[in-house]
UniProtKB/TrEMBL annotation:
Pfam families: PAP2, PATR. InterPro entries: Autotrns_rpt, PAP2/HPO, PAP2/HPO_sf, Pectin_lyase_fold/virulence, TAT_signal. PROSITE patterns: TAT (PS51318). NCBIfam families: autotrns_rpt (TIGR02601). It comes from Streptomyces caeruleatus. SMART domains: acidPPc. This is Phosphoesterase. Signal peptide: none annotated. Residues 192-328 form the Phosphatidic acid phosphatase type 2/haloperoxidase domain. Keywords: Signal.
Length: 639
């Protein structure tokens, strides 16, 4: 592969360097200059270092050591993988297996890249990152673009290699007042655009870390190599090639020409994409997971393009997560972030004719043909492997101490939780320890924001959650989709509604004191006792209670009734029904029981007491209870 225009070929034996970096051989070079502070001084610096969110403004080009730069410090996990040299081509691998897997992955991806993927990678490379992320808004994306006056000049890719550099500029036919990127400050969504730009502000550059680590881009490490198909396939069925990483032809002249100033780690595009996504997600939390997914997907195009490697992309995500939290937690930005959220909510409600309670449904109303992020499970499959890429776990797991300020990232997504509770959500959904590179200072790389948006991963102590129906949006109703483990229990308070859909294994029991708790799966309520002391407990499907079930006071239990099905509520222990308790039965619309049949409703070890009344959602049928010592059935008769 020829060198890019104007690029002076450095005095480096590329094959020898590639062997050291990727092939697992011994380190080749002396390591002068910057290498001395990594990793020993990194560990020393971390002992008394300020929290990242308090020190993020040290991320300027003049600071390139962990002692002086907070970003370099939190990326210190890379110092266990790579030993920085005195120049871009004199570093050495400290974890050859990781870097070998890194390059092989990149080679495989670029080897099977399609023309369409090459063109897409060109668009993402050249387009303003803040604009690229907007598509994550789904049905709200076009509304955002018009409201923010956000435009781009990069909408397609050439078939071959352009003659010169191409940049995203204001199109000649753009409406007056338009702006590239997140949009114009003088627009209906100007505060949101300003928030995105602030999160991506002067202390958010990846360049200081690039200069500090001096890890080359993958194509610079194998420029003289040839592509060889080994005839083998990996565990995913991909052909196994040698270490060749091939840059997309559309990007050959878009590459940096000064190797010393164009390092690979961390990926600047990845950093910018995640920063923009988290800023949008703060202002429009109705699309939180989709925006996070969009950032992961776009960041992956950096590998597809051949411009970056997996470790570069991981580094970019780690620094962006910390930088976004720092900017959002900065008191100087408190008014801006509140104004951006309020402006976005008001704008989208007005444009869509929704309320705070119905905007979420509108934001998820498109099918997969119109919204590539409509399928949550598909989004999860997109994100999960990209959290770690080629990294493998080593050592024992350790509980995460959530970095200071990280909870702000969930502030609008889970407004009904306290800061301490959001920290618990982040801690209990975090990646396990043991992934080199992600285990740097404060371990920002372990945060899994996609999963955290779905609530707690564990109740390690008792959790009380209060949702207020009058608050609107997520403050009024939310869904926790994770499989919740732990020894603690859950108490539901407030007039709002909480839905649990996971296969939950928490042992501390469940208490409904007010509002609505919805069991969206058979094992939603864990493995302890269930007490309904106020409000409503609703089961969307057959519900299993592993302990005892107690209902008392003016409360309601709502259960489904289905033809040829077992009891709607299965209780391993006893059932105790107090005065005022109501049973509300909901006929299954697809398979309702026939008139005259007796349908099992509750099955328990022992049943004591009766419901004050039994309701049925039918104008023509009534439910006549049949109590036994160990359960309840109803006979369906015409009114």
């Amino acid at each position: 592969m020829p060198s890019s225009a104007g690029h002076a070929t450095p005095s480096l034996n590329r094959r020898r360097f590639l062997t050291a970096s990727v092939g697992g051989g011994a380190a080749l070079v002396a390591v002068p200059a910057l290498a001395g502070w990594l990793p020993a001084a990194d560990a020393k610096a971390a002992v008394n270092a300020a929290a990242f969110v308090d020190d993020y403004k040290t991320n300027v080009v003049a600071n390139q050591t962990p002692e002086t730069n907070a970003v370099v410090r939190i990326l210190g996990g890379f110092a266990k993988v790579w030993k920085t040299g005195g120049a871009w081509n004199t570093g050495a691998p400290l974890a050859p297996d990781v870097l070998r897997a890194n390059m092989r992955y990149c080679a495989r991806i670029t080897a099977v890249r399609t023309d369409a993927q090459a063109k897409e990678s060109f668009i993402i490379d050249r387009q303003h990152q803040s604009y690229s992320v907007i598509a994550g808004l789904g049905p709200l994306a076009d509304l955002y673009k018009s409201g923010a006056k956000a435009v781009t000049s990069i909408t397609s890719a050439p078939d071959g290699t352009p003659a010169g550099k191409i940049s995203d500029t204001l199109p000649a036919d753009a409406p007056a007042g338009s702006a590239i990127g997140a949009g114009s400050y003088d627009s209906d969504l100007g505060q949101v655009a300003r928030l995105v730009d602030t999160v991506r502000g002067p202390f958010a550059s990846g360049n200081p870390a690039k200069f500090a680590f001096q890890y080359p881009r993958p194509w610079r490490m194998n420029e003289d190599s040839e592509v060889v198909d080994t005839g083998k396939k990996d565990e995913f069925g991909f052909p196994v090639y040698d270490s060749k990483v091939v840059v997309a032809p559309q990007l050959l002249r878009q590459r940096g020409e000064n190797a010393a100033e164009d390092g690979g780690f961390p990926s600047g595009h990845t950093n910018a994409l995640h920063l923009a996504a988290l800023a949008y997600a703060y202002a429009v939390p109705e699309r939180f997971q989709e925006l996070v997914t969009r950032a992961f997907e776009l960041s992956h195009t950096r590998i597809v393009a051949g411009m970056h490697s997996t470790v570069d992309v991981l580094g970019g995500r780690v620094m962006a997560t910390a930088l976004a939290a720092a900017a959002l937690a900065d008191p100087a930005n408190a008014e801006l972030k509140a104004a951006a959220r309020a402006q976005a909510l008001a704008y989208f409600k007005e444009r869509t004719g929704t309320t705070a309670d119905t905007l979420y449904a509108y934001a998820h109303s498109a099918d997969a043909d119109r919204d590539p992020y409509a399928d949550r499970d598909a989004n999860a499959r997109t994100v999960k492997p990209k959290l770690t890429y080629v990294l493998t776990r080593r050592g024992r797991d350790e509980s995460l101490t959530v970095p200071k300020g990280a909870e702000v990232l969930l502030e609008t997504r889970q407004p009904y939780l306290s800061a301490a509770q959001r920290r618990e959500v982040l801690r209990t959904t975090a990646l396990p320890a043991g992934y080199v590179l992600l285990d740097g200072f404060e371990q920002w790389g372990r945060l899994d924001l996609f999963t955290a948006a779905d609530g707690y991963g564990a109740f390690d102590s008792d959790v009380t959650v209060t949702l207020d129906a009058a608050a609107g949006g997520f403050g009024a109703a939310d869904v926790w989709r994770n499989d919740i483990r732990g020894e603690g229990g859950l108490t539901k308070r407030g007039t709002g509604a909480l839905t649990l859909t996971g296969h939950n294994r928490y042992h501390g029991g469940t208490v409904v004191e007010a509002g609505t708790l919805v069991a969206g799966s058979a094992n939603a309520l864990g493995q302890g006792d269930v007490r309904v002391e106020g409000g409503l407990l609703r089961a969307d499907k057959v519900l299993r209670v592993r302990g005892s079930y107690i209902q008392e006071g003016e409360t309601t239990l709502e259960l489904p009734l289905r033809k040829n099905h077992g009891p709607a509520l299965e209780v391993s222990g006893r059932v105790v029904l107090g005065r005022g308790s109501v049973l509300s039965l909901r006929l299954d619309t697809e398979r309702p029981p026939a008139v005259g049949t007796t349908v099992p409703v509750v099955e328990a070890q022992r049943l004591r007491g009766q419901f004050d009344r039994i309701e049925l959602n039918s104008d023509t049928l009534r439910a006549v209870p049949v109590y036994t010592a160990d359960g309840l059935s109803v006979r369906l008769l015409r009114r």
